[in-house]
Amino acid sequence: MSELKTEEEQIEAFKAWWKKNGVMLIAAVAVIAGGYFGFQAWKNNQANYTSEASALYQNLVQAAADLSDEDNKQTVTFIAKQLTEDYGDTGYATFGQLFLARVAAENGQYDEAIVALDNAIASTDDASFIAIANLRAARLLLQKENYTSAMARAEKVSEEEFVAQQQELVGDIYLAQDKRDDARIAYEKASEALAAGVNHPLLDIKLQDLVKG
Hints:
The protein has 213 residues and is mainly alpha-helical. 82% of the residues lie in helices and 0% in strands. The protein has helices spanning 2-64, 70-86, 91-106, 110-122, 127-143, 147-154, 163-176, 180-193, 201-212. The termini are far apart.
C-alpha cells in the first residue's frame, strides 16, 4: 500500500506541477521549434535567392558574349537592372553594373557608363574591383577629353597589381595633352611594373614612338 500511495502522490504532484507550468512549457517548446524551422526556412529562402541571382547573371554573361547584337545589348541592360533592383545585396548585382557600363560605353553613352561604374564602386569594399572600375571610368573620361577628371580617377588606383595598367593610362592621358616627356616617364614606369616574362607590344610601341619623336 505504501508503494501505491507513493505512486498516487507522485501522479498528483505531477498534475499539480503541470497545471502550474504546463502552458509555459508548451510555449517554450513552440518557440524553440518555431525558431528552428524558421531558421531552416530562412536558409532555404537565402539559397533560392542566391540561386536565382546566379541564374540571371549567367544569362547576362551569355548575352554579353556578343554585344554586336542589339538584342543582346538590350538583354544585358535589362538583366543588369533587374539584378540591381531585386538582388542588390549580392555580388552579382555589382558585376552586373560593370556590364551595364560596358554596354553604355559601346553606345557612346559615357556619362551613363560612369554612373554605372560609380554604382558598382559604392556597392563593394573589394579593393581590386574598385581599382578596375576606377581605371575604366578614367578611360571613359579620357574619351570625353576631360583630362583633369581622368587623371584624378587614375590616381585613385594605388594597388600594386594594377601599377602597370595605371601608369600606362596616366601616360595616355599625358599624351592626349601632348605632354610627351610626362607620357614617356609614365610608360617607362608601366613597363618596369610588368611582371617578369610579360610582353606588352602596344606599350612597347608607345614608348618607341616617344623616343623617336
